[in-house]
Amino acid sequence: MKIGVRAHDYGKMEIEKAAEVLHQAGYQAAQLAFPKVFTGIDSYEDITLKHLERVRKAFEKWEVEIPVFGCYMDLGNPDESIRSYAVKTLKKCLAYSKEAGANVVGTETAYPHLNTEEKAKWYPCMLDSLKRVMEEAAHLDAKLAIEPVYWHPLESLKAVTDVIEKIGDSEHLRLIFDPSNLLRFPVPDDQSAYWKEWLENIGQYIEAVHIKDFYYGENGEYCPTPLGKGIIEYEAVSKWLHENRPDMYLLREEMNPEIAALEIAFMKKL
User: Fold this and answer.
1) What's the pTM?
2) Pair type for strands 213-216 and 222-225
């Protein structure tokens, strides 16, 4: 398995400096959301071919792979103008990802926390957006990886498998698997069985696993913690990875650079 990080957890830097810093910290891979990582790029509209070439060369030099080109868009929003911008930007980033040497473009399917009724309303909008983006993915032979989140339209195992079936292009539509975004409150009694069900059904589509940990506060609020100090039970995930995808990228999110060495050691144990 390859150990990586969400690069903007280290702050915003020049392209070449970012690649060097991540290499020196011990990472083999990084998820890059350009406007959040690189000095001089404040939006996806700012990205140029020169930026993409610099990224590709710098990250190759420092031997940091780019499994995910981050472009998280509000794909399911019922507002047509918001969805149109999301689709347009993702299509653009699919082309950018190939120039930068990234494996996939990664996105969730919404921004806000939605209730049950809202998720049902947003689902067909999300599906419409995905169909439009996937036309471009197939045209460019690029990959889009969507991330299930239980408070978004792509909320459950059934929703994920339905979308995969309806899109019908598993070569270009992939997944990012983040256990923390799938652990509803209250937490299942048997996490091992819960993760096993997910991975046995959608494991073949996963391009990267996001690694983080947390606990629920008194009011059910999300409280991040160092790895191994929260409620996520990674044993079943680790077992599946070793047996099925030993080449997987493990990308730490919400990294505190001050304890990076400890966090990397934890991920290596996985």
Assistant:
1) 0.96
2) antiparallel
Burial pattern 193-223, b for ≥16 Cβ within 10 A else e, equals ebbbebbeebbebbbbbbbbbbeeeeeeeee
How confident is the model over 76-119, as pLDDT tens digits? 999 999 999 999 999 999 999 999 999 999 999 999 999 999 99
What angle, 0 to 180 degrees and rounded to 10, lies between the N-to-C axes of helices 15-25 and 49-61? Answer: 30
Retrieve residue 39's tokens: 């000095």
Q: Tens of pLDDT along 54-75?
A: 999 999 999 999 999 999 999 9
What tokens does 98 get?
Answer: 């190939």
C-alpha distances (whole Å) from 76 to each of 35, 91, 92, 196, 212 are 22, 16, 18, 28, 25
The C-alpha atoms of residue 95 and residue 214 are separated, in whole angstroms, by 35
CB atoms within 10 A of CB 186: 8
